[in-house]
Design brief:
alpha+beta; 3 helices; about 25% helix; conserved putative lor/sdh protein from methanococcus maripaludis s2 fold; 4 domains; OB fold (Dihydrolipoamide Acetyltransferase, E2P); 21 strands
Length: about 375
């Protein structure tokens, strides 16, 4: 005996099939009607070439080309200091006095000895004159005359020797007053009245203003690129040049401690704005080349890497934004110097970058500078 379907079952199946066909047709219609995503209008700026200097900054020390380190020529105790740090002095200006009492006593003793020798010379001269007259008259022998002549010669030699010693001690006495060897500005004075100094003790310095040298220590890795007359600029904390110069000396030796090469550059210090022993930033200019530059606002930094979007033509005649990884150099004004990642002529997106992802369609609009 076969089982029969309810009377309404065929109608229900037919209705379900019709609904499925209608819904599938509507879905196809809706999918065809969905519009394609619109290209995003963005402002772009063409990467332009610019002459860029290849530079490296180092810490340099300024030293005076005409700086005299004042050291005593005698030992003793300082009794007076006639100047202060910063004073301007001329040649021969007294700087310090070292106690001359002992030397004065030595000079006085030598002078007394010289006076005794002069008295002895006077007596020897008298004896010689007497012997000479008596010898001419035949009263004394030639031997006695020769003895008188020998005594006179010895007395004269002794006077001359003592005279030389007195002059030497008098010259030595002058060294107890320390004077400036040239005109200039007195530097730091590390000693005080009452200090005992030796011939190796620095007393102060006298610097002639307006003539300085920058001592720059360049790492040995960059030494092969050093050349005479290579430009060197001194810059302030903001990177602005405060003095221009050129390499005037390259050391033929390497500093064993720092493994660097000493480079000197003469600095004209007309306004006395720079000081002896001052630390400054020296920018060595190795050369120049043309590199593309892009606005700073077009560059983003993520995880230590720099990125920028570039509008590139696609196969359909439109433009697509592609994200480029950049290697940037120094900042010039409001632009980054691009070392790698962008070439001259690329259309760099400078607006709406926060809404872009790689591959987004864009409508580039050229922006002004």
């Amino acid at each position: 005996m076969s089982r029969r379907l309810p009377v309404g079952a065929p109608g229900l199946l037919f209705l379900t099939l019709v609904l499925l066909i209608v819904s599938w047709g509507c879905a196809r219609k809706d999918s065809k009607a969905a519009p394609a995503p619109q290209a995003m209008p963005v402002k772009v700026q063409t990467a332009r070439p610019q002459k860029v200097n290849e530079t490296t900054e180092y810490v340099a020390t300024l030293k005076s080309r005409d700086s005299a380190v004042i050291m005593p020529q005698v030992e003793g105790q300082i009794t007076k200091i006639f100047v202060h740090s910063g004073d301007r002095v001329s040649t021969g200006t007294p700087l310090m006095q070292i106690d001359p009492a002992k030397q004065q006593a030595t000079v006085k003793s030598q002078q007394d000895t010289q006076a005794a020798a002069l008295a002895n010379l006077k007596y020897a001269q008298q004896q010689y004159d007497r012997a000479s007259n008596l010898s001419a008259a035949g009263v004394v022998s030639k031997q006695e005359f020769d003895q008188a002549k020998s005594a006179l010669d010895a007395a004269q030699a002794q006077v001359q020797a003592l005279g030389a010693q007195v002059r030497e001690q008098q010259v030595q006495l002058h060294y107890y007053r320390v004077v400036s060897p040239s005109s200039g500005v007195v530097g730091d004075i590390p000693v005080h009245v009452g200090d005992r100094v030796a011939v190796t003790s620095p007393l102060t310095t006298v610097d002639k203003p307006g003539s300085l040298e920058a001592y720059v220590y360049v790492p040995i890795e960059r030494a092969p690129g050093l050349k005479m007359n290579m430009p060197v600029d001194l810059v302030d904390g903001s990177g602005n040049a405060i003095a221009h110069s050129k390499v005037s000396f390259i050391s033929p030796q390497v500093d064993n401690t720092t493994q660097s090469v000493l480079v000197k550059a003469r600095i004209s210090n007309q306004k006395d704005s720079l000081r002896q022993s001052q630390f400054v930033r020296a920018r060595v200019i190795w050369g120049s080349q043309e590199s593309p530059v892009v606005p700073v606002l077009a560059v983003s930094r993520i995880g230590g890497q720099y990125f920028a979007f570039v509008a590139e033509a696609d196969s359909k005649g439109g433009y697509v934004a592609h994200q480029k990884v950049l290697k940037v150099g120094q900042i010039i004004g409001n632009d980054y110097v691009v070392v790698e990642g962008i070439k001259t002529g690329d259309k760099v997106v400078i607006s709406g970058t926060q809404f872009l992802i790689d591959g987004t369609g864009v409508v580039p609009q050229e922006s002004g500078t």
